[in-house]
């Protein structure tokens, strides 16, 4: 929620989260909660694209949930995500 608030405050069109240091497994209902409470804040911020930097073993590429309203992709490196952000 803090990150979503920061995105709203700065009207961030591109959001980047580095998940390589996250040492947890989300609860099964976390994705529904995120969609209801967090994604609406990202939309409020004007999010155009959302990128995750993921650790080895995680899937790469598009992970978009059509309910989010913007594309989400997983990358290995921040530079790859930043290049995606620059694409038209």
What's the layout of helices and strands?
Blueprint: H1 2-10, E1 14-18, H2 30-37, H3 39-45, E2 49-53, E3 61-62, E4 72-75, H4 78-86
Parallel strand pairs: 1-2, 2-4
Antiparallel strand pairs: 3-4
Helix pairs in contact: 1-3
Labels describing this entry:
88 residues, 18% strand
How big is the Rg?
A: 13 Å
Can you summarize the main beta sheet?
A: 4 strands, mixed
Percentage of residues in DSSP E strands: 15-25%
Indicate how many domains the architecture comprises: 1
Calculate the mean pLDDT score and round it. Answer: 92
Which geometry do the CA atoms define?
Answer: globular
User: How many helices does DSSP assign?
Assistant: 4
Sketch the topology as an H/E string, one letter per element: HEHHEEEH
Ends distance: 28 Å
Low-pLDDT stretches: none
Query: Percent of residues in helical segments?
Result: 25-40%
Instruction: Give the tally of β-strands.
Output: 4
């Amino acid at each position: 929620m803090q990150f979503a608030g920061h995105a709203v405050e700065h009207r961030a069109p591109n959001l980047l989260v580095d998940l390589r240091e996250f040492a947890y497994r989300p609860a099964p209902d976390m994705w529904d909660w995120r969609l209801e409470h967090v994604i609406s804040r990202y939309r409020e911020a004007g999010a155009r694209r959302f990128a995750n930097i993921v650790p080895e073993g995680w899937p790469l590429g598009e992970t978009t949930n059509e309910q989010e309203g913007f594309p989400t992709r997983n990358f290995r490196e921040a530079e790859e995500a930043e290049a995606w952000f620059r694409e038209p």
